[in-house]
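Render this sequence as a predicted structure.
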Amino acid sequence: MSRYEWDVYHCRNGPGEGINVTSADQAERTRGVTTRTRRAILDAAVTVLSRNPAATLAEVAEVAQAGRTTVHRYFPERSGLLAAVSADVLARIDAAVLRARPGDGSGRAALLRVCRELYDLGDLLTLVLSGQLSERPEWQVCTDADAALIALVRRGQSDGSIAPDLTPEWLQRLLWSLLSAADAHGRERDGSRHDALAMALHSIDGAVRPG
């Protein structure tokens, strides 16, 4: 019996009819539901907070399609939800930079891939750029994404694809500035996210090329 078939059978007949459900099975299902619910709440929080920094837990619950009591069970206080969102956002930024394969090809090509991956984060990128999370202590340390970006800039300067007089710190600020401009442009009523990304990539490519 497949996992899907087991779920359907369980819903129709209950765990005690015709199938031996162990405590391990039940624990696995509980963990799965817990993980999915928590993920839905965090995703909803990113969406809601990216549009309204003062959003309440009730608004997050509505977008997550979860009851208020469910959200309060996972995050009794708004501060706890913000802490979880902050940690999740940092992890997803690290994952985005990793997807960009920062160690492959020339440094400039890797930097452009990083720009694409970060831009594709959508509402998460908007939330980061809003500055709501930047004062938290976990944002004051060098992350895996920061280290990867610094390394690819230095590699690009060694392979001749990135101008040697541009520091990694400057290019990091430039990258996030262009992402901010692209995100704002793409969210305008007549803006195109595709065009905004294209312009950001063109700008950063021209800025980092050796003169």
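Summary. The first helix runs from residue 3 to 13. The radius of gyration is 22 Å.
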